[in-house]
Amino acid sequence: MILFLLFFASPLDPVIARLEARYNQMESLRAVFVQQYRADEQATAREESGVVYLRKPGQMRWDYSKPEVKQFFCSGKEAYFYAPADHQATRFSVKDSTDARIPLRFLLGKLNLRRIFAKIEAATDLAPIDPGDPVLKLWPKKGETFRDIYLEIDAQSRIRRLVIDDGDGSRSDFRLSAEEPNPRLDSNLFRFTAPAGVTIVDERSGQ
After folding, report:
1. pLDDT score of 178 more than 90
2. How far apart are CA 89 and CA 156, in angstroms?
3. How far is the C-alpha of 54 from the C-alpha of 44, rounded, in Å?
4. How far apart are CA 60 and CA 73, in angstroms?
5. Residue 136's beta-bridge partner residues?
6. Which residues pair with 200 in a beta bridge?
7. What is the mean pLDDT of residues 93-117?
């Protein structure tokens, strides 16, 4: 029986187990990010950067500082995107959203990759940033708007890079660094309050 299990064990299993153990012991996370976005394979990538905060269950905040200041808040069922220069914020439902940041919510619950995703394999079509890092390719279950996700995992079992391919052909490439596990984050950090003079555009279905 033991030999049977060893024969069918995936070489990715230890990598996945260490990753899940690391993030399942976290209740919150702070990291610096660089995001590259391209609309299709021929398009020039647009680069932005800032700091991301995650807090279980289901809360995230993205503070962009370059090339322009903007913010993204998610508090579970609802999310807001706020661009101060436009004097406007957009409110939308998480379950109906195609926003590239939304798939990252899988980090905000009990992390079990084989249960969350339909299939996981070692990526052969995306080279790691740091040579030697394993890169996982994950396919979603039915009902998701994205086509696949890549995870590059470093020697400390941290997510170094996360790439999301959407069904429309676009790609969002998030590179993470300076990860700080379990910082003290107040729940108010994830709540958006519109400043005076800011218009809120409500894109929730039925609104």
Report:
1. yes
2. 38
3. 29
4. 6
5. 122, 151
6. 89
7. 75
What is the value of pTM for the model shown?
0.86
Residue 4: partners with Cβ closer than 8 Å, 6 or more residues away: none
CA-nearest of 78, 97, 146 to 117 is: 146
Domains of the chain: 12-202 (2.50.20.10)
Query: What is the rounded distance in angstroms from the CA atom of residue 77 to the CA atom of residue 94?
Result: 5
Nearest to 101 by CA among 56, 39, 47, 146: 146
Q: What is the secondary structure of the chain as a DSSP string?
A: -HHHHHHH--TTHHHHHHHHHHHHT-SEEEEEEEEEEESSTTSPPEEEEEEEEEETTTEEEEEEEESS-EEEEEESSEEEEEEGGGTEEEEEETTT---TTGGGGGGGS---HHHHSSEEEE-SSS--SSTT--EEEEEPPTT-SEEEEEEEE-TTS-EEEEEEEETTS-EEEEEEEEEEES----GGGG---PPTT-EEEE-STT-
The amino acid sitting at 181 is: P
Over residues 135-175, the pLDDT tens digits come to 999 998 886 778 899 999 999 999 999 999 988 889 999 99
